[in-house]
Write a structure and sequence with these properties.
Largest sheet of chain B: 2 strands, antiparallel
Oligomer: heterodimer
Helix content of chain B: over 70%
Strand order of the largest sheet of chain A: 1-2
Mean pLDDT of chain B: 88
Strand content of chain A: under 5%
Mean pLDDT of chain A: 88
Order of helices and strands of chain B: HHHEEHHHHHHHHHH
Strand order of the largest sheet of chain B: 1-2
Largest interface: A-B, 86 and 87 residues
Radius of gyration of chain B: 24 Å
Structural class of chain B: mainly alpha
Largest sheet of chain A: 2 strands, antiparallel
Order of helices and strands of chain A: HHEEHHHHHHHHH
Low-confidence stretches of chain A: none
Structural class of chain A: mainly alpha
Shape of chain B: flat
Distance between the termini of chain B: 46 Å
Number of strands of chain B: 2
Number of helices of chain B: 13
Distance between the termini of chain A: 47 Å
């Protein structure tokens, strides 16, 4: 029996529709990157990257925003990486299938779904008001740290899962305690993978705006932050200001494009580094 | 013997330390919830909770009579989210099916990381592109005054929801046992028929969960809608409202929290909106979670 031609035509049409979907997504991505790259490229200069904004932010650069984003991401990392790793160690190495473990896992999944602006509200109450850190790098960094926590835990646990059980059992069979086996036979192999996973989370945090808007990011500061208690300028918030809140929006559009390009380059650069390291690690493990 | 006891004690202490870190996730979630409730609570001394949820007018700074109705924002949020899903779900399933059933494995290896790049673009950049790219295009194509509309937000949120929908849908399509497809092909069905009538139905719960997760993300997204939807404080007509300027719950918090005097009814009311947002996304994510778990249990 010959396959009917109608069936063949339907299949060709159907697969074509799927290809169109794929092409559409790729086209949007290329359009995005091309628009930012071509229009932002012209604004990038040494002055743009190394100087502060001047004349009511209609001229000059974005140096304070780069510094601010760097500092706030450091604080995010300091909170999120150790806590996330330790939580992952508990879940993967110690936890048994109890109701509490299931509750912890459920909480982690739900935390990653909490809207970023809700983290902002939480940060305002907990860090700015109750703990009296004020609107500062510290408050903003800690808020972002809590937001990235679920991602860090998940990524770290993935890395721990790749370590074969025989490594653990080998140490235990030689009389090592549980912690000794984790420290000597699990962590040395898992930590690089854990770190690359967490860098992906940090990259997302560096590009976030809503959680820092009310916990420390400033419209404009004539000086660089000197301590974690100072307010700061940040790249994503600066882009928001330049795109919507500036008094001469069309005049500063090239600066906004330049800021968007730097922000995208920073975030995608961090992403890419993590992905490349992860790729190399996987090859080594095989 | 004593040494052993000491070692045991140390082990127990280390275990307790890691346990504390693990439990922290539960505490943070509870902390967010209680913070929102306690901060939102004072608002309801002055505002009737029914009127808060069903009132169409939000005008907290009115000199005569302050109004705190968030229905227009809820509807706006659902309108923008619904529009986003109407675009992202079919396209996302299409891409996932392409990756799992049509694409050569080499193409797949290249395309998957590229789709992940899309997930990495910060929301503020997407919002910016909404202002400079999508909005002018919408206003030109549809001949309307300006393009900062719900439709603009929907398009952008669709782009943002796509990576989630694609990756989870593809996973669930790949998880369909090969025997299902083989049985279908052996009965003479084409690969397309097998995909549409066997594989997609079998992967449906995963696809639904993926769409729910995308929905949760779209409801909670702030910067994109804040920048791209115009933020007019009006009640959107349905269904024509998709071409009007709207203000979502997230955008309203972002706009007003910076200006509101602390510890006023208005301030507390903004936290009440945050609470509504939290509950809404919590429920959506929980449903997605249950659907996904059921599906995985059945697989095992």
């Amino acid at each position: 029996m010959r396959p009917s031609t109608a069936k063949k035509i339907w299949q060709a049409l159907g697969f074509m529709a799927l290809r169109v979907c794929m092409a559409l997504v790729l086209a949007v991505l290329i359009l995005f990157l091309y628009d930012i790259g071509s229009k932002g490229g012209g604004s990038i200069s040494w002055e743009f990257l190394s100087k502060a904004p001047r004349r009511g932010m209609t001229e000059g650069g974005i140096f304070p925003a780069i510094v601010g984003t760097f500092f706030v991401t450091m604080i995010t990392a300091v909170l999120s990486i150790p806590l996330g790793m330790c939580a992952a160690i508990y879940l993967n190495e110690y936890a048994r299938q109890t109701r509490l473990t299931r509750l912890i896992r459920l909480s982690i999944r739900n935390l990653s779904g909490v809207p970023s602006i809700v983290y902002g509200l939480f940060g305002v109450i907990l860090f700015v008001n109750i703990l009296q850190f004020g609107t500062s790098i510290l408050s903003a960094g800690l808020t972002l740290g809590l937001m990235t926590l679920p991602w860090t835990i998940t990524a770290s646990e993935e890395a721990l899962k790749t370590i074969p059980n025989s490594y653990r059992e080998g140490a235990l069979a030689l009389g090592a305690t549980k912690w000794q086996s984790i420290r000597t036979n699990v962590l040395p192999y898992a930590v690089p993978g854990m770190l690359t996973g967490t860098v992906l989370g940090l990259a997302r945090a560096a590009g976030e705006t809503a959680p820092i808007m009310f916990t420390g990011a400033a419209f404009f500061l004539p000086y660089l932050p000197k301590s974690p208690g100072d307010q700061f300028m940040a790249l994503p918030y600066h882009l928001y200001i330049m795109a919507t809140q500036h008094h001469a929006i069309l005049q500063v559009r090239p600066l906004a494009y330049g800021t968007a390009l730097v922000l995208i380059a920073l975030v995608l650069g961090m992403n890419m580094t993590a992905v490349i390291i992860r790729y190399r690690l996987r090859r080594k493990q095989r | 013997m004593r040494k052993k006891k000491l070692a045991n004690l140390k082990e127990a202490a280390i275990r307790a330390f890691f346990f504390t870190c693990g439990v922290l996730a539960v505490l943070v979630l509870l902390g967010i919830f209680t913070t929102l409730i306690t901060t939102a609570f004072p608002a309801f001394k002055e505002i009737d909770i029914g009127r808060f949820l069903s009132g169409k007018i939000w005008d907290p700074t009115s000199p005569e009579k302050a109004e705190y109705g968030i229905l227009s924002m809820i509807v706006s949020t659902l309108l923008v989210t619904g529009g986003a899903l109407a675009i992202a779900v079919p396209v996302g399933i299409g891409v996932a099916a392409y990756l799992s059933d049509v694409a050569h494995w080499r193409v797949r290896e290249i395309v998957k990381p590229i789709v992940e790049i899309l997930a990495g673009i910060p929301s503020v950049v997407i919002g910016f592109l909404g202002i400079v790219l999508f909005a002018p295009a919408i206003s030109k194509v549809l001949h309307i005054g300006h393009g900062l509309t719900a439709l603009n937000g929907s398009l952008l949120l669709a782009v943002m929801a796509l990576p989630t929908i694609i990756s989870i849908s593809e996973d669930s399509l790949n998880a369909v046992p090969v025997t299902y497809a083989e049985a279908s092909l052996a009965l003479g069905a084409s690969r397309w028929q097998t995909l549409v009538r066997v594989k997609i139905p079998a992967a449906l719960s995963g696809i639904i969960a993926a769409s729910m997760l995308g929905m949760g993300r779209a409801i909670g997204e702030t910067m994109t809608v804040l920048m791209a939807t115009g933020n007019a404080r009006t009640f959107p007509d349905l269904p024509g409202g998709i071409l009007e300027s709207v203000r979502t719950m997230t955008a309203n918090i972002a706009i007003e929290l910076g200006e509101v005097p602390f510890y006023t009814t208005h301030y507390y009311a903004l936290f009440a909106i945050g609470l509504v947002l939290f509950i809404l996304t919590f429920v959506v994510n929980l449903v997605a979670d249950v659907v996904l778990n059921k599906y995985q249990e059945r697989e095992q």
